[in-house]
Write a structure and sequence with these properties.
By secondary structure, the chain is α+β, with helices and mostly antiparallel strands. It has 13 helices and 17 strands. Helices cover 29% and strands 27% of the residues. α7 (225-235) crosses α8 and α9 (287-299) packs parallel to α10. The chain binds adenosine-5'-diphosphate and magnesium ion (MG).
Length: 407
Amino acid sequence: MAHLLGIRIQNYRSLKDLTLGRIGYGKGQPLPPIMCFIGPNGSGKSSLLDSFAFMADCLAEGVEAACDKPHRGGFSRLRTQSSTEPIKFEIYFKQRTQSRPITYAFEIEESNGVPIVVSERLQQRRKGQKHGRPFSFVNLNHGKGEVWSGQSTDREEGNEKHEVSLDDPGRLGITSLGQFKEHERILGLRAYMENWYLSYFVPDAARQLPIAGAQKHLNRSGDNLGNVIQYLQRSHPDRFQTILEKISKRIPGIQTIGFHKSEDNRILLRFNERGYTDPFYQQSMSDGTLKMFAYLLLLEDPEPHSFIGIEEPENGLYHKLLEQLAREFRRHAEQSANKTQLLITTHSPYFVDALKPDQVWLLEKDDNGETQARRTADIPTIEALKAEGIPLGSLWYSNHFEERFRG
Ligand SMILES: Nc1ncnc2c1ncn2[C@@H]1O[C@H](COP(=O)(O)OP(=O)(O)O)[C@@H](O)[C@H]1O
Ligand SMILES: [Mg+2]
């Protein structure tokens, strides 16, 4: 599955110019399968996570709808206050382990009060090309430009260059171009981004028992947990049983998890807890258990997401459970390399304890109010202290990640 190697975000809220990982065949360590962002309030953690959601919304609904989501409040609120430049994104990713990486970049500007896509570019090196500039196979300005079909910018392989002129300035070109078989790479990019999942799990929402039938994937708040269970039970009955057994082993205090179909066809999750003969249903389960269940279910999805972003999973979780969850996340991300990539924001040292210095970034605002990021692996002394056996979260808690950007 596709893997994000790096990202550059410019002029998105406090992210005036933030680069993470490796971009555009450049230097820098590629992003790991699990990455965690810590930092004070207002340092830009939510903005970072939201920038992924924003890109996905741009693709799904167009840039105006993406800017106007209630929590975003329109283009002028989103663009970094001190900037007059477009909002810019650049992602660098690999479709498969063996594929040549692709850069996808686009810019959004406001024109007569309406946000539009001002430019869009996709680049990749040619087969066998080890050095030098990658070739653009999509190059659009204000919806007009050139697109190469196929898998390379090589006529010898039967690929062709087409002139294109898109009719909706508020839509990304990959939205329409990514529907055609001859644009395999664009199709791949579109499928990759459509598969991103950004969660803000609300345990209360997950206690509901919606009737609306089977749904493939958990939504942002988790209020369709019951529907997802229903889908899994119906479409992957064997797998579903294994998933329940696997998950029940990973939640402390839980012996088995089963389900019960009510007369009106709703799925009730049945948790058998140690010490009790009678089972509990999801309405009476604790926030922590439900949360743990939902996250583990996400990881066990038969059609896993390429990318999952989670905000502050610690809310409502006992610290030992949180440590366990962090270990599960890490194990999953590292074992199934190139499957799901995880991005998590947290305030909890317990979560960070389970991670390595090259998986954790510290976000801080500099004197200009702009978000800066530092990988904890790049802080001198951290690796050495970690090697002495002090967990990373404890180093953070005991002030070893001294703040650098503030005067
Ligand atoms: N358009 C903007 N320009 C500059 N800064 C902004 C803009 N919009 C929001 N901010 C600032 O971005 C900061 C980051 O907030 P947020 O991402 O919620 O941080 P965190 O999640 O780390 O607490 C806030 O201090 C907010 O004032
Ligand atoms: Mg936040």
